[in-house]
Design a protein that fits this description.
Blueprint lengths: L5 H28 L11 H33 L7 H30 L4 H41 L2 H7 L12
Helix pairs in contact: 1-2, 1-4, 2-3, 3-4
Amino acid sequence: MKRGGPLDLANACLLFLCTSMYLGTGWSLILFTFPIAPQLTVDNYYLQFVPQVQAATRFFTWMTAVMLLSSGVLAWRERKAALRWYPLGVLVAVVVATLLTRIYIFPYNYEMAAGIASPERLREVLDAWMRMNRIRVGLWTVQWLLTLGYFVHRVLRAQQPAGERWRLGLSVPPRGEAHA
């Protein structure tokens, strides 16, 4: 199968879809959910928080596995081209975001799902949860930018004649041009 063919493009599009879903979810949290955090109390936080987070966790667990596979396959398929760095960057950012989620965010999710009775503890947990999620949204933004960069790089490479590509650093040079 030819590298850069329709299946590789479909895989890259799938990865872009997944990174876009993370980007939209994350920025939606920051822009629309975080501002209401001061209004949450021990009496009302559960319905505003727990069911949504549990549903997102179920969905994004599967999507993260798809992203790991997709970015790994794309990096492998582009291993001989400069394009490989984009999916490799996405792969690293997905791993780091997943570790951040599992190690730091999930314990807060579990505590909120179990029920928090103290207003002081609720404030501590929400503040820490939002702080960790701001970091995670940063990682999700990096994933999206790297995937976008992959497509921009492909477009720029496609628009340049073969000889120009090497001069601009857009692809690995053909063997005959390596020492010219």
